[in-house]
Amino acid sequence: MIHISLSPNLEIDDVWLSLKWLFSPFRWSDQKSQEKLKSKLFTLFPQAKAIFLLNSGRSALMLGIKTLNLPKNSKIFLQSFTCSVVPNSILWNQLVPQYIDISKTDYNLNPKLLPRNPTAKALIVQHTFGQPAKLEEIVEYCQKNKLYLIEDCAHSLGATYRGKTIGTFGDFAILTFGRDKVISSVFGGALIINNENLVKPMENLYRNLSYPPTFWTFQQLLHPSITYLAKKTYHLYLGKVILSLAQKAKLISKAVYPKEYLHQVPKVFPSRLPEPLADLASHQLLKLNRFNHCRQQIALYYQKNLHHPLITKPKWNPEGIYLRYTILLNQPEKLKSYLKNHGIIIEKRHWYTQPITPSDNLSLINYQKGQCPIAEEVCQQCLNLPTNPTMTIKEAKYITKLINQWQP
Fold first, then answer.
1. How far apart (Å, rounded) are the C-alpha atoms in residues 89 and 64?
2. Most exposed residue of 40, 67, 372, 399, measured as fewest CB within 10 angstroms of its CB?
3. For the chain, which residues make up each domain, given as ranges?
4. Prediction pTM value
5. Residues 6+ apart with CB under 8 A from 401
6. Which residue has the higher pLDDT, 103 or 352?
């Protein structure tokens, strides 16, 4: 059985490491793992003027935007077809998200749709599913119009654009170490500052940050072992029961908090990254090249061997890392159900069923229906195929064969 979103990076050594920290609370006040993680990130981003470790990517984005010190109600460009935590981070700073439609070929912001005389003060570029955005045009636009450029690298750690590392083009970049991202510490993130003028403001903000509550860290450390057990028993239905009971007992937390649906800031954000989670992220960072190579090989297999006449494949980009391999088709739920019957579990609310997902009321995040027609069309047609680093080419062949044989 293959799961696309149930901690797809999780390996047994991650489980043992989380248990080790779970039973060593006396070490949680250390900072050795945080320094080790920062050192590894500086190796990946040697141009960075400063790196700050936070408890999530949304914390990094919230604080990064705050360092820009923009006037209240200033506009920030961002693409539709994104996660709600991105516009929420803008709204939480009393600023206004302004959406730009995407390109169907890479699911990224289409720079040709950017207005000639922008009133916005900044632009957030997302490298969707690990495919690099059209950075040359975007960087030129921001420089010409004096916009801050923010890189959202939640999907793209390790990807490059024309040989240069993603995350090195903007004034700052954010990383996410969420449970279903490129590397995982269950929750976690980092702010990579490339603009020296933003370092001091961020240092002032960071100085006043605390760590999350101890119980919150405890929940994240329980997540790997509970999830690992659930995945191993999912085919017996026991896995569903384990996850449901663990969530009801609040032994593990959800990726998105209920308050975020109402666009309120949950108390746990923003916070510093706890020592145990820094060690989990540092441990997974050692696997980054292997993980991304695996994702690329599986995506390339899909690219070469998927031949169903009703499916549109994305444009291939050898510099992408393919956190997901996203195909387009009419009524994707039919294929999703078919795959589930054959042991392939796609996300319950996959990326992205709405132009901004998840959200119960798009108007609250300044999005009006019809605003980005390409993104709205893609939301109705997209289906993410797994590229999990724990998968094998044999499993990718099985999925490909199933799809090619599918008769809707």
1. 10
2. 40
3. 27-207, 288-405
4. 0.96
5. none
6. 103
The helix (run of H) or strand (run of E) holding residue 91 is helix 85-91
DSSP 232-301: HTGGGTHHHHHHHHHHHTTSS--SS-HHHHTTPPPTT-S-BPPHHHHHHHHHHHTTHHHHHHHHHHHHHH
- Average per-residue pLDDT for the chain: 95
* Amino acid in the structure at residue 272: R
CATH of 288-405, one of 3.55.30.10, 3.90.1150.10, 3.10.350.10, 3.40.190.80: 3.90.1150.10
Q: What is the pLDDT of residue 376?
A: 97
On the question of pLDDT at 255 being above 80, the answer is yes
Q: What is the pLDDT of residue 262?
A: 66
Q: Assign 75 to helix, strand or coil.
A: strand
Q: Would you state the pLDDT for residue 167?
A: 98
Domain topology for 27-207:
Aspartate Aminotransferase; domain 2 (3.40.640)
In this structure, which amino acid lies at residue 55? Answer: N
What's residue 237's pLDDT?
81
